[in-house]
Amino acid sequence: MALVSEFLGQLTLNFGGESEPKFPTVVTARDFDPAKDAARIETAVKTKGVDELTIIDILTRRSYSQRREIAFEYEKRSKKDMITALKGALSGSLEAVILGLMKSTAQYDASEIKGSIKGLGTDEETLIEMVCSRSAEELVEIKRVYKELFKKELEKDVAGDTSGDFRSLLLALVQAKRDEPSNIVDYEKIDQDARALYEAGVKRKGTDVATWITIMSERSVPHLQKVFDRYKSYSPYDMQESIRKEVKGDLEKSFLTLGNILHIIYLHSIIYTSGKSAKEKVVTRIVVSRCEVDLMKIRTEFKKLNQKSLYQTITEHTKGDYQKVLLSLCGGDD
Questions:
Q1: What is the DSSP string of 137-182?
Q2: 252: helix, coil or strand?
Q3: Average pLDDT over residues 42-54
Q4: pTM, 2 dp
C-alpha cells in the first residue's frame, strides 16, 4: 500500500460522483437469445477439457440481467444450476471472474466487503477500496443486498471489525448521507467548509477528525470539488497534502481514497509491484465490479497515469484464459 500512496502524490483528489453518467465496457447485447446461449454454454461445459473460450465469449459480452436469463434457460434445459456447473467446469482465476460475473455489481461488492471482514484479521485495503470509492447510491444498494445475503447489517459488521476514527469514517460513509448534487452553487457554504477543513487540521495542533469526516462524507461531489479549490486560499497546502500531514495509516488511505481514483492507483501499483496472487485478486475485483459501471473511465485515467493502456498492461502481465477473460471485459484497447 506504500506504493499506492506514492502514486497518489501524482494525482489531485478527483471525486467521481453520483451525478456522472456510467461508462461501462460491458453493455446489453443486441439480438440476445438466452436459450441459444444456454445451449452453447451447456455444450461448452460438457466438452472434454471444457470449452473455456465459448464461456468467456458469451458471459463477458452480456449484461448481468442477460446472464441471469441465460442461467434460467440453462436450468430449464438441463435441470441443473448453471453456476454449479460453471464451478465444476472451471478453476483458478478464470473461475473467480466468471462466478463474479454471475452476481450483480451490488452482490459482488457486498460479498467482497464480507470477505474483507470475515474471520481473523481485517483486510483493510479491500474494505477501504470498497467503501470509500462507492457513491451514496451504490452504498445504499450494497447495504440492502448485504442484509439480504448475510442476514446482518453492514454497519454492525463494519463497527465490530474496525476501531477509532477509521471506524467513524467508514460508518459515516456507509450511512450514505451524502447530499445530492444541485444546480445551485452555494458559494457561502463552499467557503465555510473550506475554512472549517483548514481550521480543523493544518491551522491547529492536532486534527479535528470529526469535522473532516462530516464534510467529506456528507457533502455532494461537485460541492467538494469547489471546497478543495477554495481550501487552497486558506492553507499553504492543498487538501491532499494536508491529509498526508494530518493523519496516518488506514485513516489517511481512506481520506485519500474518497475520490474514486483508487481503482486506477491499485491497478497501476499492484500490476507492477505485487506477487501473482495479490495482483490477480485486485485486478479481478476491479474489472469485475466496474465493467458495467465505469471501467471505460478507469481505462482512460489508467492510460493518463501509466502512458500505456490497461489492455496492453493486462496483455503483458497475465496469460491464458485469465488474460482472455480480462481483455474481453476491458472492452478494447485505447
A1: HHHHHHHHHHHHHHSS-HHHHHHHH--HHHHHHHHHHHTT-PPPP-
A2: helix
A3: 96
A4: 0.86
- Please write the tens of the pLDDT for every residue from 2-15: 434 443 444 444 44
- Grid coordinates representing 65 are 440481467
Question: Is residue 137 a contact partner of residue 104, using CB atoms and an 8 Å limit?
Answer: no
Mean pLDDT across the chain: 88
Inform me whether the pLDDT recorded for 35 exceeds 90.
yes
DSSP assigned state of 182: -
C-alpha cell of 31?
439480438
Helix or strand or coil: residue 96? helix
261 Cβ contact list (under 8 Å, min separation 6): 8, 11, 13, 14, 16, 133, 301
Residue 162 near residue 174 (C-beta atoms within 8 A): no
Residue with cell 483508487: 262
Output the nine-digit C-alpha cell for 300: 482512460
- pLDDT bin (cut points 50, 70, 90) of residue 265 is low
299: cell is 481505462
How far, in whole angstroms, is CA 46 from its chain's centroid?
34
C-alpha grid cell, residue 218: 456528507
